[in-house]
Design a protein that fits this description.
Elements lengths: L2 H7 L2 H5 L3 E5 L1 H7 L4 E5 L3 H10 L1 E4 L2 E4 L1 H12 E3 L5 H6 L5 H8 L2 H14 L4 H17 L1 H13 L3 H5 L3 H25 L3
Helix pairs in contact: 4-5, 5-8, 9-10
Length: 195
């Protein structure tokens, strides 16, 4: 039997079925005294592509990826249950949007882990991960914000998502601090060389 015959004889419902997975947020289970289990679902290819495009910032010739936006949109599309966009839940947490609920409910690492689980359900594989790593390495050399995140990660052990979660004012101050730190290091190196 060839592949065409196999596809023609296949149960299309099984092939096209939405993939789901239960994911326990252990910290919240402990806090609530009962299991806090999310039902995660795969995101269709077209929508996943739209999410990725929404998360790309293009300023003139520079391109950067807004990881915060990428992860929040992934959570928004990939958390099937419970409905965290429910008006009662948003009111309880003082949130105006589902993104604000996710920010208040989950820690940074939990957001990353949940987003990655949804990505795996959606068919994101190691080959794509390697391609993304190569793309990020290129961005480290060309994109100002990615360079700053790399510096903060390498020199100050700050996770990129922590930087992305900052408001614009905080980001501006941190960027200024990093640039000043780099200038200070250059000046110190110049003095050490006797210049």
């Amino acid at each position: 039997m060839n592949l065409v015959d196999a596809l023609l004889n296949a149960d299309t419902n099984a092939i096209l079925a939405e993939k789901t997975k239960e994911y326990e947020v252990e910290r919240l289970s402990k806090a609530l005294g009962e299991k806090f289990v999310l039902v995660l679902k795969s995101i269709p290819a077209k929508r996943y592509s739209e999410i990725q495009n929404i998360a790309v910032n293009i300023k003139s010739k520079k391109k950067s990826i807004d990881l915060y936006k990428l992860r929040m949109l992934t959570l928004n599309e990939g958390i099937k249950e419970p409905n965290l966009a429910d008006e009662k839940i948003m009111k309880k947490f003082g949130a105006k949007t589902p993104f604000e609920v996710y920010e208040k409910l989950f820690l940074t690492g939990e957001i990353t882990d949940i987003s990655e689980e949804i990505s795996v359900l959606s068919g994101y594989d190691e080959k794509e991960k390697e391609e993304d790593i190569d793309e990020i390495k290129k961005l480290i050399k060309t994109d100002g914000q990615v360079q700053i995140m790399y510096w903060l990660f390498k020199k100050h052990h700050m996770r990129p998502l922590d930087f992305f979660n900052m408001n614009i004012g905080e980001k501006t101050v941190i960027e200024a601090f990093v640039l000043q730190e780099i200038d200070d290091i250059k000046e110190e190196n110049r003095r050490m060389k006797g210049g």
